[in-house]
Write a structure and sequence with these properties.
heterodimer; A: mainly alpha; globular; B: mainly alpha; two-stranded antiparallel ribbon; 1% strand
Chain lengths: 504, 479
């Protein structure tokens, strides 16, 4: 459907405009910049809601399409649109961005206007990534994300922030420039920069494999998949809370989104040929990284590793499709795996955001992320403890929370591909519970760890609002995931049918 | 041929600039230190008026006058306009810096104007002699400008190096030209091309001459292995001169390459293509890798220039109109970016203190958030990160090489641009993540600040709307 007014453009440019205003307001009156930032974040969220309410779930076609020529000499268009895959992720972005602005309210005292501006600009750019239908527009947004994040980690990060942020930038830059070459190559082949035109472009297997690898470099770094995940723990640990939240909740999803929008439909045969590699990497992420998370001493690092493990489910869900369709005795399940991956992305967006915010709450008070510095927090911060335990349960995949739905769907689908995949994937239910709950046990329960812990104040109203809204989202998605699955159903179904057709 | 104002219209901007430069020179003699700004104002007026005349003389039809030695075509119009605009920026930027150094003399502007004249002649050259005339006029002015701060030892050393190596390169170029002249018997470039196309020239002599011409062009660009002068000259010259030297002449060098290699020796594309591939890869590799080791900002930017030259060459290598227009886009964008990069260096300097190290950038975001933001845009543009225009410059040349089936070369180029990103990031790190080591308030004149802001925002503006500039470049090559 098309709307009377450009909803997607508004969702992209409103926060960027807000960011410019906040930047212009300067640091003389920090509260003014904070309120402007909040105003624009809320406005953007409101503006993005019609994308859901006006969405036609019955079609896989792009909706709310906007298209105007941008660089005519290159046939590049300012072409935006959403389908069932990108729309939920855009809403996730606009929702989480409000929380990030609120979460940084009093905590950020050094140049708050630049901090808020960076997040607002980031928000607009991320929405742009999810909605771009022109490959070059996509790439511009994709790379533009790096700039605010680089600044966020580098300026407001922890002691080792410079190392972490430069590593983050170079890693992702390395991944994406080869994607650029692949995009240019496809432009050369097809004479168009439309992503949807790339979907129908005939490519031979060698070309497909090379393009697939170029995409894999870009997306695997972003997701991140083992073995190119090493930037993530560094970036998460050093980033300010807001940075970690955006990184985990949204930027990682962009990698997963890239697989759905680019790798699978553009290079289906190469994906089919190389699916063993992705599945292997995903299972290593789930199992091995799960064990790595178990031994972490730093809470943020632990959650960072748990993110990698959870994102392993996403890529597993996306790539078992080929094995399921190849088996003659199984007729369904391909769609289930992909939907599971998508649900897992959205759910992880909420849960990881909540976990990082919980750690942020503790860090703001004690300025330590070491598990050993805490203990018995429940005695002084009962409300906080309730939230933390709830989110930890969700992180471990407790039924009734959103964390369960996605994992369960992917595990179910894996059974249809191969019993052992499902077996390995299911170990996360044990390992995930072990590392999350063990951390909670050491931080929240037990005797009061130190005098500092004894003086802790419970969460204030601002923090309570943030955590409550996330808790509601996690619960709703856990108990009643149908609305989310319905909107993506047609698009995923279409994708599965598209990739079943060979391009050779 | 009869000479009157109508037939001479295409060369009107050059004639005006010559006359105006002489007037500025004479007027300056009668000025005192206090009224020196008159020279500054007159020079700016001259540039603006010349720009107006370029627009007035512009047109879609190619015109060749003065017995075939001078050509005015759409490419010349765009390049001259860009050249004059970038020079305008450079002139405004130079004033404060020269004054702080106590060398705000009229000669800077007069020499600058003559250098611009030389570049305009190069851009419009249609014969080997015109090319050489323009080139030498430019080079002589630049040698003098580099030595402009005569009490500076490094400046004198840089000027000496530049002069000796530049003279050598000019000699090589001239030697190559004489070989081609010997083989074809022609000096006018299109005539040379048609002689080669007709197969009337000895190919051994031609290729022999071509090698020397490519060396001459590479030297003017500063491509590896003819880059030795670049870091020393950039470092030794007063920053205001480096700013001029590092920006506008890149546009002229591009014109030089097009006039000689495409207009004149386009038939030898296959031969010079291979030579340029080697030069381009070496430039990107050495420029980007060695820049990492620099602590001096001017030297870092010098090595960065070398790597950018490699990218400009990529467009030429493609050998298609698309590639030439991409290289043209790159050269113009780079000239503007470089001017912006160096002006920030000059703005950090003040009386008795010449900022030139990366650590002088430390904490710039605390001292002047706006200046830091502009510099960040400029550095990201150099690194080729969207949405800045530097990305599109890289994109277009990469597209040009991919479309002639040289995907491997595009791969090499992006690989080295990742390495390049590191040292730009390091400079941004110094500005944003480090605490200032020097809290002196940065003062700068309003005109400098204004132009600097325009320059920085242009990185973003052209990045969001690259179509107009690209369209102009495409039109210049009829693509």
């Amino acid at each position: 459907m098309t709307a009377d007014w450009p909803i997607i453009s508004a969702t992209i440019w409103l926060p960027i405009l807000g960011g410019a205003l906040v930047l212009g307001s300067g640091d003389k009156a920090p509260n003014v910049s904070r309120w402007i930032a909040l105003l624009f974040a809320v406005l953007t969220f409101l503006v993005s809601i019609p994308l859901y309410t006006g969405f036609d779930a019955g079609t896989a076609a792009m909706q709310f399409v906007e298209k105007t020529p941008w660089i005519p000499a290159f046939d590049v268009h300012y072409h935006l649109g959403v389908d069932g895959i990108s729309m939920p992720l855009i809403l996730l972005t606009t929702f989480i961005s409000i929380l990030v602005v609120v979460a940084g309210w009093e905590v950020i005292q050094y140049k708050p206007s630049q901090y808020m501006a960076a997040f607002l600009i980031m928000e607009g750019v991320m929405v742009g990534v999810f909605s771009a239908l022109d490959a070059m527009l996509f790439y511009v947004f994709w790379e533009a994300m790096l700039i605010p994040m680089f600044i966020i980690i580098g300026v407001w990060g922890g002691p080792n922030r410079v190392y972490a942020t430069i590593k983050f930038f170079l890693y992702t830059f390395l991944g994406s420039v080869f994607m650029l070459v692949a995009l240019i190559y496809m432009y050369f082949k097809s004479g168009s920069m439309e992503i949807l035109a790339f979907h129908d472009l005939k490519l031979d297997l060698t070309e497909q494999v090379l393009i697939f690898i170029a995409f894999l470099l870009a997306f695997a770094v972003k997701v991140p998949m083992w073995p190119v995940h090493t930037w993530l723990p560094d970036a998460h640990v050093e980033a300010p809370t807001g940075g970690s939240v955006i990184l985990a909740a949204i930027m990682l999803k962009i990698g997963g989104y890239g697989f759905l929008r680019f790798s699978l439909p553009i290079t289906p045969d190469a994906s089919n040929e190389l699916d063993w590699m992705i599945i292997g990497m995903s299972l290593i992420a789930v199992v091995y990284i799960g064990f790595v998370a178990l031994v972490q001493q730093d809470m943020k690092k632990l959650i960072a590793y748990s993110s990698i493990a959870h994102m392993g489910f996403v890529t597993l869900g996306f790539f078992i499709v080929f094995m399921i369709t190849a088996r003659s005795d199984v007729t369904s399940g391909a769609v289930l795996g992909m939907q599971g991956g998508m649900v897992q992305m959205v759910s992880h967006g909420f849960i990881s955001a909540a976990m990082f915010l919980c750690v942020g709450v503790l860090y703001d008070r004690l300025h330590s992320r070491d598990i050993k510095d805490y203990g018995g927090v429940v005695n002084v911060m009962p409300w906080f403890a309730a939230f933390m335990v709830f989110f930890a349960m969700a992180n471990a995949g407790l039924p009734g929370t959103s964390g369960f739905v996605g994992e369960f769907m992917v595990i179910l689908a894996s059974f249809r591909a191969d019993f052992w995949f499902a077996f390995l994937a299911a170990t996360t239910l044990i390992v995930g519970a072990a590392y999350t709950l063990w951390m909670v046990k050491r931080v929240v329960y037990g005797e009061i760890g130190s005098e500092k812990v004894a003086k802790l104040q419970d969460i204030n109203g601002r923090e309570a609002v943030v955590l409550t809204s996330l808790a509601i989202a996690v619960l709703i998605l856990g108990i009643w995931p149908a609305p989310l699955i319905e909107v993506m159903d047609a698009s995923i179904d279409n994708l599965v049918r598209h990739i079943a057709v060979t391009k050779l | 041929m009869e000479y009157n104002l109508t037939t001479l219209q295409p060369v009107l901007p050059e004639m005006f600039l010559l006359a105006a430069a002489c007037v500025v020179l004479v007027v300056d003699l009668f000025l005192t230190e206090r009224t020196r700004l008159v020279t500054y104002g007159l020079s700016l007026l001259t540039l603006v008026a010349t720009l107006g005349l370029v627009q007035y003389a512009a047109g879609p039809v190619k015109e060749v006058i003065l017995d075939g030695s001078f050509v005015r075509d759409p490419m010349a119009d765009v390049l001259k306009s860009a050249l004059l605009l970038v020079s305008l920026f450079a002139f405004v930027y130079a004033k404060d810096y020269l004054r702080a150094l106590g060398i705000l003399r009229g000669e800077y502007y007069v020499l600058g104007l003559f250098a611009i004249l030389g570049m305009m002649v190069m851009i419009s050259a249609n014969s080997f002699l015109t090319v050489y005339l323009g080139l030498e006029l430019l080079a002589l002015c630049l040698y003098a400008l580099v030595a402009f701060h005569r009490d500076s030892k490094t400046g004198a050393e840089a000027a000496m190096k530049y002069f000796v190596l530049g003279a050598l390169a000019s000699g090589m170029l001239l030697y190559g030209i004489s070989m081609v002249y010997g083989a074809t018997g022609q000096l006018v470039l299109p005539e040379v091309a048609s002689m080669i196309a007709a197969g009337n020239a000895d190919s051994t002599v031609l290729v022999f001459g071509l090698v020397f011409i490519v060396i001459g062009v590479s030297f003017k660009f500063g491509a590896v292995p003819f880059h030795m002068w670049v870091p020393d000259v950039y470092h030794g010259a007063p920053t205001a001169v480096t700013l001029f030297l590092g920006s506008a002449p890149k546009i002229a060098a591009f014109a030089l390459a097009i006039r000689l290699l495409v207009d004149g020796l386009g038939e030898l594309l296959v031969q010079w293509q291979d030579m340029l591939v080697i030069l381009a890869v070496l430039s990107m590799a050495l420029g980007n890798v060695v820049a990492i080791a620099q602590t001096n900002l001017k030297r870092m930017l010098a090595y960065s220039t070398i790597s950018h030259v490699g990218f400009i060459f990529l467009g030429l290598i493609a050998g298609t109109d698309k590639g030439f227009s991409a290289a043209m886009f790159y050269a113009i964008v780079y000239a503007l970016t470089a001017a912006g990069g160096f002006v920030v260096v000059t703005m950090l300097s003040r009386n008795g203190f010449d900022a030139e190290n990366i650590h002088d950038l430390k904490g710039l975001n605390d001292r002047s958030p706006w200046l830091a933001f502009m510099m960040m845009l400029i550095l990201f543009s150099m690194a080729g990160v969207p949405p800045t225009v530097g990305f599109f410059a890289k994109l277009f040349v990469l597209d040009a090489v991919v479309s002639v089936d040289m995907v491997w070369l595009a791969g090499v180029a992006v690989f080295f641009s990742i390495i390049g990103a590191f040292y730009y990031l390091r400079a941004i790190k110094a500005m944003y993540f480090d605490k200032p080591i020097d809290n002196t308030v940065l003062v700068s004149a309003i005109d400098t600040r204004l132009m600097m802001s325009v320059n920085g925002l242009a990185m973003l503006g052209f990045g969001l709307f690259p179509a107009a500039l690209l369209g102009a470049c495409r039109a210049a090559f009829g693509a």
